[in-house]
Amino acid sequence: SGATVKEELATFVPSVCNRLDRNTSGLVLCGKSLKGLQALSLLLKERTLEKYYHCICKGRIDASSIIQGYLVKDEKANLVQITENQVPGSSPIETRYQPLMTTDQATLLEVELITGKTHQIRAHLSSIGHSIIGDLKYGGESLYHLKHQLLHAHHVTFPAREKLTEDYVQFAEILLPLCGQTFTAPKPSNFIKVQS
How far apart are CA 169 and CA 18, in angstroms? Predict the structure, then answer.
């Protein structure tokens, strides 16, 4: 909200507020002003911004669920591991999903990140036997000549006005017009072809 003026650019460069895994398509959040970046960062930190992904995973999933666990990152190998119990260096994770379309071989899921850690969706689904198609790093099959995971940051929903705490007062000018709004990124063509 509001235009970034030339003077602001002398001290602030518009920047990305979140990141996506390599070869994941979809929405990335950016702040075009310092205040906008700070507001987005607070929404992400307090987990009041709802982030939804679409993915196609192997196997049939017929019911919605929430999965929890702990994530341990191996920086050198750029891999994460999911454990049921907390171990040194682990972070708690929570992932909610619901099937949108199913066949016996695959399921189109909508996944909501309750927490947002590196490779969380990919590793969490793999840990329950439903790797994302094309995700060779986490056990996904290389179907349809894919060389990357079918994972897409589909939409984000800003919190309703009543969910904004006193922490957000300083960002009211930016956030109030966005309250309750959803922003969507269309899926790429190769994702749609596999889904059909």
Answer: 22
Q: How far lies 157's CA from each of 35, 58, 182, in Å?
A: 19, 27, 4
The string of pLDDT tens digits covering residues 36-50 is 999 999 999 888 999
Task: Name the CA radius of gyration of the chain, rounded.
Answer: 18
> What are the beta bridge partners of residue 79?
74
Closest C-alpha to 150, from 129, 122, 123, 128: 122
103, amino acid identity = T
Say how far residue 154 (Cα) sits from the centre of its chain: 8
Within the chain, strands assigned E span 15-16, 25-26, 30-31, 50-58, 65-74, 79-83, 91-102, 106-113, 151-157, 182-184
pLDDT 10s digits, 56-92: 999 999 999 999 999 999 888 888 999 999 999 899 9
Is residue 35 within 8 Å of residue 72, measured between CB atoms?
A: no
Nearest one of 189, 196, 193, 185 to 20, comparing CA atoms: 185
21 is catalytic: yes
Can you give the pTM of this predicted structure?
0.88
User: Active-site residue among 21, 74, 104, 135?
Assistant: 21
SS3 102: strand
b/e sequence 169-186, b meaning 16+ C-beta within 10 Å: eebeebbeebeeeeeeee
